[in-house]
Every structure is written in C-alpha cells, then in structure tokens.
# Entry
Amino acid sequence: MNDRLSPGETIGILGGGQLARMLALAAARLGLSCHIFAPEADSPAFSVSTRATLGDYRDEAALAAFSASVSAITYEFENVPVETVRFLEGLRPVRPGSKALEVTQDRLAEKRLARALGARTADFAEVNSLDDLKAAIDRIGLPAVLKTNRFGYDGKGQAKILTAAEIAAAFAILRGQQGILESFVRFDREVSVVATRGVEGAFAAFDVTENEHRNHILHRSVVPATISGTAAREAIATARKIAEALDYVGTFAVEFFLVDEAGQVIVNEIAPRVHNSGHWTMDGAFTCQFEQHIRAVAGWPLGDTTRLGSVEMINLIGSDAARWHEILADGRAHLHLYGKTEMRDGRKMGHVNRLL
# Structure
C-alpha cells in the first residue's frame, strides 16, 4: 500500500473520545473519511465519522473487518493495547506504530529513553515491592512521587510521599502493579511542546505552550509561554530527538517542568497523540494539531505551525460547559463542545479558545 493516501480514502481511528472527534472533523475538511473503532456506545466521535464500529480492542475478527475498510490507522490515546496495534500493523499502516505506543505507555521506558537521548528527568527508580519502594526512597529521598508505571492520567494512580509514615499507604495505590518512584521536582511552571513528524521524517513544532493545572487536570494553556529562547529551543530539540528515536509518525506532545530562572527543562511525560495543551492551535495557528496529525497519517506535507497571536485555551470541566451561552456572548471566544451526553465532575466537556 502507498504511504500517501488520496482524498476520498478512509483513516481508521482507535478510540472514540473527543480527540478522535476532532481528528475526524479535521479529516473531513481535507476530503478524507474516518472510521471509528471504540468499545463505548456513547463515543463522541461516532456522530461525526463516516463509519463507526462498536467493538472490543482484543476482538481480532472485528479488528480485521475494521482494517479492511480503511487505508491507514491511527489512535487517539495511549491506552489502546499494544497487542491491538501490532495485530493491525500486519494488515494496514498504523501511524504512529507499536514501538511508540509501547514506550509511551510505560513511564520507566519513557524516562530511560529521555535519559538515553541526553535529556534531563527527575530521578527515578523501579518499584515492584514495598522493599523496592523503601530502597528507592533511601536513594532518592523525600518528598517523592509514587506512580503506577502504566495507565495513569490526570493525577490518577499516583501519590506524593512527604514523610516515612506515608510510605505504606502510598504503596497501596499500586494494587499489585509495577510502579515508579520519582523525585519531587520543584518547578517554576509547566510547559509542553506539541509537534508533528511526517512519514518521510519532516518535523514541525508549535510554539512552546505554558500550562496551568487544577486538581491534576489541565485548566489553562497560553502561548507564548514564559520561557527563554534557549530553553524553548532545547525543549523543541528534545521533542524532535524523541520522535526520531521512536520513528514516530503523527502529532505528539512532550510535557516539561521549567525549574529555574536559567530555563532548565526537565522531561515529565510523553503523549503519543494530539494533546489537550495543543487545543489552542484550532483557532490560534495556521494549521491545527489535528489537521497536522491527519496530514502525517495520510502521508501528506505538514502545514505551517506559525502562531496567529497570543492565545489562551481554557478547558470546560464538568458543569463549566453549562456556561456555553455566556461564553458565546463573548464575540472573541471560540467554543468547542465535545458532544458528551453526561456532564460530571472532572470530565472534559469542551474548551474555549481566545486570541488575546
């Protein structure tokens, strides 16, 4: 099969959440169709895609039928089983591939990759037992953060350890899973790089984004970030090294801690997908992150990432989305709602972009 798709062809997307929804909308503008494969019947992407399959990620018969209907496949989030992607790689191009997914599902593998590429990270240690945790704390010190090695997001699956009296309770969060202990990083701010790598290795990064979290969930992103030119260049260069090491195709994000006035950046996490901190690009850049991802998956040239001005993105969490009428009364606000039927605390219901 050719690396380059033609208008009218179909891209398969594993996952049916808001990221898949926005990918499908971006693909439609380019004359491409999307077929969503997801296990949730209320998936927001189903209503905006050409085709939808409700199925389990481990159902190989359903996956084979899905692959037969598309020309290339991608995924909207990193919790798709690696085995699913490996199976599909034998049938159709999957971009990004299983190598990128396998590494970015695993916090230890992420940290080891970053270190191997010369990037800075928090000190870390593998934790498989309570004795491992105690030994890691003896080496790394307190305060520290214990995390499940896999399947944690938005603050889930982690615990801060401030004193020795908290060790046993923190270990309980692992529930038999492998963990990672990380030294506590005292940072000035959090920033991210959202970038895209094409099939033939072309690379394009958006301006570094500054992020503010509330209750471990991204609340606000602004560009340009308050960061020195030297630190910004280092962050983007690190993101490029990571993409090349993973032979990555598509849009991804690298989250960093900015730790001092000199602008030292420390890699926190890698996300193998379009990213919440890149939502500002939908109204604030020549090409948005979703179109960039579709272009890369289709084997097309990447677009211009130039920023259109200073931009703010605010997430609408839970009942925030009930303010839609108030938001629309601001003629400079760009409202994006995700079509989710149930509004609940902590759930991302939409976002709003403003050019400042």
Notes: The longest strand covers residues 189-197.
